[in-house]
Amino acid sequence: MSNGTQNDIDALIIDMDGVLWRDTEPIGNLERVFYLINDMGLKITLATNNSTKTVAEYLNKLAGFGVSLQPNQIITSSEAAARYLISNHPPDSRVYVVGEPALEQVLSESGFKITAADAEIVVAGMDRMVTYEKLRNATLFIRAGAAFVATNADRTFPTPQGLVPGAGSILAALEAASEVKPVVVGKPSTYIYQEAMKRMGSDAQHTLVIGDRLETDIAGGQSLNCPTALVLSGVTESMQARAWAPEPEWISPDISHLLLGMRKRRNDVG
After folding, report:
1. What is the pLDDT of residues 86-141, one digit of tens each?
2. Tell me, what's the pLDDT at 108?
């Protein structure tokens, strides 16, 4: 990225898992990270494919790391799924969820009926308590004609111990059994990015997308012609990043190094 373009950035869309933390372990000093963001006068939205927490739960998690944000500064794939259903299905539609309570809560609060029988829609996301029965029921509903929607297709999920199965692993089982591909509403779908920019009053040219996953975070940002920054603190290694085309404008070990580099360039140019 040229210095001039870099200095035009006024907003950030930041992934969480693999960028800000690995499960319960923060990546670097998050208080310092958000101090740097504020010091540069940048607007921020945290955008995640993870559907296992509500916005309120993410705010509490951030508070535990010494970071205070507003609810409208976080958008999840559960919210993206709810908005997709609102736009494409009647109110009170019956939904079978392969996912965790946070996803059920968001869909229920959006007017949909969570059901274990006669489902018209199957919504699947990350489910750390997935059972054969859940997969069986979802498969039968999809084969009977239920719409199939997924919060995201991330195959893995970063933890302090290493990569573990993500929502995409569950989708792989359901796709194989039902022979139907889902509508995926999370990244790299553009909805989350567009909603984030709308909330911040920014546009693609002036919004930097920061993530750890090429096929979701970076691909989604590039599809909207946003500048992108890949951090190597999550699921992607340096060789994979260099092989990606087009290459992200920034490749950095982690978000702290990225922000320090951005601030230095701003100061050098200014």
Report:
1. 999 999 999 999 999 999 999 999 999 999 999 999 999 999 999 999 999 999 99
2. 97
Q: Tell me the residue length of the chain.
A: 270
Cα distance between residue 255 and residue 46, in whole Å: 13
Say if CB 138 and CB 98 are below 8 A apart. Answer: yes
The residue behind tokens 């951030």 is: 62
Please state, in angstroms and rounded to a whole number, the distance separating the CA atoms of residues 69 and 264: 25
- Chain position carrying tokens 């302090």: 160
Q: What are phi and psi of 157, to 5 degrees?
A: -140, 125
What's the CA gap between 31 and 63, in Å, rounded?
A: 10
Task: Measure the CA–CA gap between 84 and 103, rounded to whole angstroms.
Answer: 14
Structure-token pair, residue 137: 């029921």
Contact call for residues 100 and 90 (beta carbons, < 8 A): no
**Which of 174-179's residues contact partners 24+ apart within 8 Å by CB, and which partners?**
174/98, 174/122, 174/124, 174/135, 174/138, 174/139, 174/142, 174/148, 177/135, 177/139, 178/138, 178/139, 178/142, 178/143, 178/148, 179/143
* Dihedral sign computed on CA atoms, order 156, 16, 148, 97: positive
Closest CA to 74 of 44, 39, 46: 46
